[in-house]
Amino acid sequence: MSNITGIIKSIRDIMRKDTGVDGDAQRISQMVWMIFMKIFADKEEEWSITLENYESPLPKYLKWQSWAADDEGDTGDKLMDFINNSLFPTLKELDPSLGPQAAIVRSVFEDTYNYMKNGTLFRQVINEINKIDFNDQKERHLFNDLYETILKELQSAGSSGEYYTPRGVTKFMVDIINPKKGESILDPACGTGGFLVNSINYIRENSKNYKPAQIQKKIRGIEKKPLPHLLCTTNLMLNGFDVPTVRRDNYLSKPYSDWGSKDKVDVIITNPPFGGVEEDGTETNFPQKFRTKETADLFLALIIRLLKDGGRAAVVLPDGTLFGEGVKTRLKEELLARCNLHTIVRLPNGVFNPYTSIKTNILFFEKGTPTKEIWYYEHPYPKGYKSYNKSKPITVKEFDAEKKWWNKRKKSKQAWKVSIDEIKKRNYNLDIKNPYEEVDHLESPDVILGKLQETEQNIKTIQEEIISVLNKALS
Description:
Elements (H helix, E strand, L loop, with lengths): L1 H15 L6 H28 L13 H4 L8 H17 L7 H10 L9 H11 L7 H18 L12 H11 L7 E3 L6 H13 L5 H5 L2 E5 L2 H13 L7 E3 L16 E6 L24 H12 E12 H5 L3 H12 E8 L13 E8 L5 E6 L21 H7 L8 E5 H6 L19 H30 L1
Helix pairs in contact: 1-6, 2-11, 4-6, 5-11, 8-9, 12-14
């Protein structure tokens, strides 16, 4: 691990000297597209043996082996001229009809850019990347762990309500959902692919005679932004997928009524962006009763629609969804009528630090039968903790208590249940506090700030709804 860590550190140090690369987001984007090309080259060597009559979609002169593999190869202005005027223009326009691999390469490069300007530094980066053998299972495994740290670092460069989901939370959700070989699995806002990769690993560990090809067509991800899409595609290739089924798209941009039975899936595991606002017009793809610009709300409506009867979902949502009114009330009414929302795990403050102070919850539900009661489980801090941070994130080990409780449920200081009649009396307000909690302390400033942010977002959403209604009345 230390060798690969050293290589990545060296790459980043080299890039910091280049005047064209500005900040972490560009550095990571630059590094990942180059690593993608190396992984693709290593995978092509594998495919030439394992796939019958495999033909590369890349012209020979664009292959990594032709321009990057030789340590003493082109450098300086000649190399940069090739990258900017040959490699990128050709890959951006690669004919997807040449096969699934061609479609992947084109989708990766359509919105990817070369930021480096110094050809000598560029050659130094290439030579570092060539030290990693992605066909070596041991190195690939080590790189996966390191890759996760790269993804975490990306979050300091991004916003728009998108947050890296801690590995502990992701793994717990997948463990509880228990995805099986043969089931269709979707993350409609997959980011860098954490839920998809954890699902692949879970199926691999819990299936006999596992082969990636058996589940490759069953696992789907959608990501609208170019950098997370590139990261996710690379991530899946590192985990044995020959043709990652990750699309560059926005699932909210398709009319709600157009989703039919062929689109429905067995399992949805996701952390949709919350606090984000969709562009004007997106909400008109949804029925009037669900129209809002709040991204998380639109995704919840879509998730209910996309689940098959008997399908299972685990979704991270903010406290604002639980107590919000208006569209949020109608969404919760729909959820509880069409699905069995059997469990809400209430996460403590700071799980998404330092990206947001908003408190979050994991909703577990199955489609096909209405909710009769909801169990709540309040996840406690580990002993001695008052919050989480980058150096002390939430871990999967902490969820052992929930796993032990899951199939033998009893009320306790952490767990309680509420009937559907009580929820209806509360007008579908699901923000039900722990009845066993001792109310003898003031909430932390982070919690108060998080609640203020949620309230502001709710006010903004209501204002937009009022303006929309007035505009219609006047038109």
